[in-house]
Every structure is written in C-alpha cells, then in structure tokens.
Amino acid sequence: MSSYVYMKILESQPERYDRGIALMSLGGADRCKKKLVHENVRPGFKVLEIGCGTGTMAILAALAGAEVLGFDVSDAMLEVARGKIDDSGMSGRIRLEETGVSGMDKLADDSFDLVMSTLVFSELSHDERVYALRHAYRVLRPGGRLAIADEARPETLARRLAHSAIRIPLLIATFVLTQTTTRAVDGLSDLVLEARFRIESEERSSLDSFLYLVARKEEKE
Ligand SMILES: C[S@@+](CC[C@H](N)C(=O)[O-])C[C@H]1O[C@@H](n2cnc3c(N)ncnc32)[C@H](O)[C@@H]1O
To answer: Does the C-beta of 162 come closer than 6 Å to ligand 1?
Structure first.
C-alpha cells in the first residue's frame, strides 16, 4: 500500500487513475472500497463522499441502495466519474459537486447517515483534515458513521524507517512529475476523537501503512 504515494501521478491522468490504482495496489484499493461499502452502507442511506475522485465507491454505495453526494476539487476526476456513473445506470442516485472540503460548510446539519472517504485525507493539510472532520460530524445524523481508509504513518520506529525507505524516493519522483505531494496521515484517530466522534474500529494493514477507521457520532450529546 506504500505505493499509494503514486496517486498524485495517476490523478494527473484521471483516465488512467482506476487502472493504475488497481495495478499498484494489486486490487487492494477496490477490495477496500467494497469492504467499506459492504460494512457501512444500507439501502436508503444518505451518503456523503469526501473526494470521490473517479466515482468508484459512490457507484458501489448507490448499487447498495444509497443516495450519494460526492464532491471533489478536480473537474478532470469528476469528468471520469460522470462517464462511469452514466454507464452504471446510477445517475439517479448520485450527485456530484466540484468543490473542496472548504465547501462542506454549505451542507445541512444532521443530513447524512454516512460520511466516507478513501485516499483523500493523505492529500489534505492538517487544517483541512480538522475542518473536514468537524463538518463530517456536524452533517451526520446522531448515530451516523464516519468511515475513512487511507495511507497512514506506521506507529513503531522500525516500521516508520522501513516505510520511509520506500516512500522518500517515491515522494521525490511524485514531486518531480506533478509538483505535488501526499502526506501519510499521522494521528488521524486523535483528530477523529477531537472532532467528538467515538471510534468503533481501527484496522491497520500488515505493514502498518494503511488505516481503515470507522467512527460514530453519538446518538445523544
Ligand atoms: C487519490 S485520489 C482518491 C480518489 C477516490 N477517493 C479513490 O479512493 O479512488 C484523491 C482525491 O482527492 C481529491 N482531493 C484532494 N484534495 C481535495 C480537497 N481539498 N477537497 C476535495 N477533494 C480533494 C483529489 O482531487 C482526488 O480526486
């Protein structure tokens, strides 16, 4: 999963993004999206996806019976998503908006059953992460869930060193090719707790560099 640092390169070629991610993660990215949807989406749910990219997970959620609002800053990624959504026959269930997390303040309180996101928090600044989590909490109905999967900073020094050995050359290559970078998410659980969520589960990959976290907004505050 450490090869997720290549995401930025793929995003600069959105039409190749799905194939590239599938190849580099050996199908892991798609498996993760299916798992997240299977475990958290129920028919009739209203779902918000932060950074929906090419729409893969939004389509899975819609196929599972949800109504999805997906937003993303990249018009090029959304253009690919629009084509895939049309092909899937799910356009009646999915709405897309071109906006960044800064646009979340326009969403109504308590209006979603689930807020989900994969491979996006690693691209956000610290302030954007805090902002996105604060608004995720606000827009979720009481008892609603937050589900995030992303590249994470390993917790032990030995694993961090091993991870850096792989990641630093990839970060340099990414920056040379795209002038952008990603930051493995550090301390996401703490940020989620600070946003007042109760964490229900946290799973880490065997190399400790990928995190899948599910949290809940309390029923009563
Ligand atoms: C690596 S892609 C992941 C796309 C999709 N979620 C997936 O798992 O395939 C990261 C996505 O986050 C989007 N993104 C980056 N910064 C963002 C922001 N501030 N607000 C909304 N989307 C953002 C990018 O445009 C891109 O589509």
So the answer is: no
CATH 3.40.50.150 given to domain 2-216: yes
- pLDDT > 90 fraction of the chain, expressed in percent and rounded: 65
- CB within 8 A of 164, min separation 6: which ones? none
Please state the pTM of the whole predicted model.
0.89
Atom of ligand 1 nearest to the CA of 51: 22
Tell me if 48 CB under 6 Å of ligand 1: no
Domain boundaries, the chain: 2-216
Tell the residue number behind the tokens 């892991």, with chain if given. 28
Phi and psi at residue 92, in whole multiples of 5°?
A: -70, -15
Of residues 18 and 209, more confidence is placed in 18
CA atoms within a 13 Å half-sphere pointing along the CA-CB vector of 2:
19
The answer to whether the CB of 208 is under 6 A from ligand 1 is no
